[in-house]
Amino acid sequence: MKRTPRTLTAVALTATAGLLVSAAPAAAAERFTPGAPGAGDPYFPDMGNGGYDVAHYDIGLKYDPATKGVQAVTGIKARATQNLSRFNLDFLGPLTISALKVNGRTAAYKRTGAQELEITPSQGLRKNSRFTVTVAYSGVPQRIDDPALGTSGWIATDDGAVMVNQPFGAATVFPVNDHPTDKATYTFTLTAPEALTTLANGDFAGKHTKGGWTTSRWRMRQPMASELSMLAIGRYDVISGRTASGVPNITATDRGLNISPELARTFQKQTGDIQEFLASLFGRYPFSSTGGIAVKAGVGYALETQGRPVYDLARRPGTSPRPGLIAHEIAHQWYGDSVTPERWADIWLNEGFASYAEWLYAEKYEGKPVQQSFDETYATPADDDLWKPITADPGRDDLYHSAVYDRGAMTVHALRKAIGEEDFAELIKAWPTAHRDGNASTQDFIRFAEKISGKQLDDLFDKWVYTSGKPSL
User: What is the Rg, in whole angstroms, of the alpha carbon atoms belonging to the chain?
Assistant: First the structure.
């Protein structure tokens, strides 16, 4: 359905207002205070906010190639975790807000600090009350180019855009409580000219075309951290199918990459086959659909966006993602997406296991034993930069350091050798099952491994993830 900016805003605001739960008036004896303007993560003090918990985001976005901009409405359902006089959302860049309501009533707001959208509702929000926020806005979202962490956010492409958000890009596209500890479900309603394809996380829920514009709808039914949300708009070839166990599998390849139909089908099949292999090790796949998107974005990396990873192949046109990389990103669906770190310092739990999955894939399908992968990596000289950071606390600017990936994988293998094959096999399946859809820390993982194995493991982890320098074997 074709909608003008005014119609899109009015419809979304009206629809949200019909689902409201009114805030109770503040009693005289009650004290209402502002929610914290950050989630308390030392690496990113401006990210996230306190005082509430988001349950769901409903993102309606229309892309106009003529302006490269968007007209959008984001609806949020949340619960207050304290008596709130006001609260913040994260919202970055030059997007202009045209309307903002809390529980269907116009609310005061201002933009402050690095990324804060400070909202004051007409009435205080009582602790445990459920409330809605609706924000209508428009403009050209920005990309983030961080000297240490690379490019994220809204990435304009030749024929559209790609949104990749690790660690802090989501706030460039929609107002959000942008920290991994506040997971929520998502609905995306994406509109673009009918010649373009729109893609997002989750299950495909249909599309329709009217007046030259096509709208597609996507639902991520399992809780998702904002840094794992994605969307892609452009000219894509899409293949739909199912894995051997019946999970819907949607892959897409940017036509600008000149990927042959045969290679696109190989990408689709490898995604399904690798997912089945990893499920045999890690347990049931945690989401209701899977796949992958090969994009021409120029960001220089692949990202484990939930349920449907993004692979940037701008530097390798005519190719598809290599199988080892697919194994890495699909492994993240268990380690990093379903079970997400409590703090960014714990990112080695994501990357160490995903890198270890590459070693497991190489052993299974390429004949290279995991022990050989470990030995080759461990042979890195002691004065190499690999051994300098503390793996379980690398620091903000070293979030993607090789120590997080390679030393993380070596830690997983050292743990395997220490606890034995039987306990290790139980551990790597039980951990993502026990913490499905949640968050966990390095200390949580150590205690869990000790419970499974019956062994004291503090010394092992002190040596491998809490101490700088090359560990002795």
Answer: 23
pLDDT per residue as tens digits for the range 348-372: 999 999 999 999 999 999 999 999 9
Sheet-wide strand order for 87-90: 87-90, 116-120, 108-112
DSSP state of 331: H
What string of H, E and C letters represents the secondary structure of 349-365?
A: HHHHHHHHHHHHHHHHH
Whether the Cβ atoms of residue 391 and residue 348 lie closer than 8 Å to each other? yes
Euclidean distance between CA atoms 89 and 95, whole angstroms: 14
For the chain, the residue count is 473
Are 264 and 251 in contact, with CB atoms under 8 Å apart? Answer: yes
**What CA–CA distances, in Å, run from 101 to 10, 17, 18, 42, 75?**
12, 9, 13, 31, 10
- Strand locations in 3-68 (E): 52-64
Distance, in Å, from the CA atom of 237 to the CA atom of 63, rounded to the nearest integer, reads: 19
Q: 386-410 pLDDT, tens per residue?
A: 999 999 999 999 999 999 999 999 9
Residue 51: left if φ>0, alpha if ψ -120 to 50, beta else—which one? left
Packing angle, helices 261-282 and 421-434, rounded to 10: 100
Q: Is 53 exposed, middle or buried (0-12, 13-18, 19+ CB in 10 A)?
A: middle
pTM for the whole thing?
A: 0.93
Query: 364-389 burial, b for 16+ CB within 10 Å, e for fewer?
Result: eeeeeebeebbeebbebeeeeebbeb
Structure tokens at 380: 């890195």
CA distance 458 to 473: 16
